[in-house]
Design brief:
Length: 229
């Protein structure tokens, strides 16, 4: 049964990847054609026609983002079988460097405690931290963002946590946020709704689990475990 389930999951992942990849071509044609219409005819037709063109351009852009997000999710593969010792401190610093613009624009304060050396897939660990830190910046409140990253050793391996003082999440919606393409906020906060689903996939394929403790308006703390190799 486990082998059959694994086989079906692999088939589903391949189907998602192929479907997302094949959708890019026709979607690109639609997007380019609509952008040409907007550039060529906007302002020459009536106001209603301009609004329709504007709506189509926005919808095509959103569809493109969703297809890209689905492709990233489908291509999040199995962790590297040859796991290597990875300095988590360096992984986090690389993620922070990649988020430098967002950190500076929000004037965020990041406290990173001493992090361990673990056996892991470095590229997926980087993606995991970048997504979680990026979310803390994206869903910030009116307060200056404060983010704390720490790790504690447990009998099974390591327990990592990333805390923030952002918008928070209502208790009844905590499990929803890890579902693919699930978004709790409106278009005022950009995003595809795939980042936390990728985090969940990475953590679970390493043998760990991920969850959040949060209250609306009180910030969030995301926890995830990485078992000893």
């Amino acid at each position: 049964m486990e082998n059959e389930l694994r086989h079906r999951n692999e088939e589903l992942g391949q189907f998602s990847s192929i479907a997302a990849h094949d959708l890019q071509g026709p979607l690109r044609n639609i997007r380019n054609s609509v952008q040409f219409l907007a550039k060529r005819y906007e302002g020459q037709l009536d106001e209603t026609a301009d609004q329709f063109i504007h709506h189509i351009v926005n919808a095509a852009g959103q569809m493109h983002q969703l297809v890209q997000a689905l492709l990233r999710y489908a291509e999040t593969g199995e962790p590297n079988s040859a796991l290597k010792l990875v300095p988590v401190q360096e992984i986090v610093q690389a993620a922070l460097a990649n988020l430098k613009t967002d950190l500076e624009q929000s004037a965020a304060e990041v406290i990173c405690e001493t992090l361990p050396l673990i056996k892991a897939d470095a590229s997926q660990l980087f993606q995991l931290f970048q997504n979680l830190i990026g979310n803390a910046l994206k869903y910030r409140s009116t307060r200056r963002p404060e983010i704390t990253i720490r790790a504690v050793t447990q009998y099974y391996g390591w327990l990592f946590s990333i805390s923030d003082n952002g918008l928070g999440i209502a208790p009844e919606r905590r499990d929803e946020i890890f579902a693919p393409l699930k978004r709790l906020h409106g278009p005022e906060i950009p995003g595809s709704g795939i980042g936390l689903a990728i985090c969940k996939k990475i953590v679970e394929r390493s043998g760990g689990r991920i969850w959040v403790e949060s209250e609306a308006g009180q910030g969030s703390t995301f926890y995830f475990t990485i078992p000893s190799a």
